[in-house]
Design goal:
Layout lengths: L1 H33 L10 H12 L9 H25 L7 H30 L11 H12 L8 H26 L11 H6 L1
GO molecular function: L-ornithine transmembrane transporter activity
Subcellular location: Mitochondrion membrane
Main location: mitochondrion
């Protein structure tokens, strides 16, 4: 229906914007987690930021961006699509019980993990490139080289961990959101009466 379509479109757009804004910070986080130094001392985030800018320029902060952009948009599309269809499948009425919303979030998280694992693997490999690691010419080159050297199974390294993260994470995300909205509904009103700012806060 129109509501489901609008939610999916909004999710895709928000996924794009969020990943574009957060990617430089994610790049620094991954570099901080995977760095190594000869004297055993790790560089602080501020020093990593200056080092990255001075050696590789500002665009280095967006290295591997296509992968998370695709991930963000695809993740939102899959999550909202599976969640909406599954909750309608297990509940016919308009007022879905909270436990079914938690269940819908868990199921959608399980499905989306199979999409996110390969995308996140490529993203991390692009973000952690340095002189001692293989250099990839682009995200696509990293993708094809991974398949060529490790096979399709190589793209799904960490699948179990990703699934263990996504199932409870999305159960809490969807269930927590719907639960918060229910608390914000004015007395005698419906969810449509909740202010958009409250939806954003939830």
């Amino acid at each position: 229906d129109n509501a489901a379509r609008n939610e999916s479109v909004a999710g895709v757009v928000s996924g794009f914007v969020c990943r574009f804004v957060e990617h430089p910070f994610d790049t620094l986080k991954v570099q901080a987690q995977t760095q190594s130094s000869k004297d055993g001392r790790a560089l602080p985030t501020s020093a990593l930021f200056r080092k990255t800018i001075s050696e590789d320029g500002w665009l280095a902060l967006y290295r591997g961006l296509p992968s998370p952009l695709i991930c963000g948009m695809g993740e939102s599309l899959i999550l909202f699509g599976i969640y909406g269809n599954f909750t309608r499948l297990i509940h016919a009425g308009p007022d879905i019980p909270l436990y079914k919303q938690f269940l819908g979030g868990a199921v959608s998280g399980g499905f989306v993990s199979f999409f996110m694992t390969p995308v996140e693997l490529i993203k991390c490999r692009m973000q952690t490139m340095n002189e001692s690691a293989p250099r990839y010419q682009s995200t696509w080159h990293c993708f094809t080289q991974t398949i060529r050297s490790e096979g399709l199974r190589g793209l799904f390294r960490g699948q179990v961990s990703t699934m263990c993260r996504e199932i409870p994470g999305n159960a809490v995300w969807f269930g927590g959101y719907e639960g918060a909205i229910c608390l914000l509904v004015p007395r005698g009103g419906t969810k449509r009466d909740v202010h958009p700012a409250c939806h954003a806060a939830a």
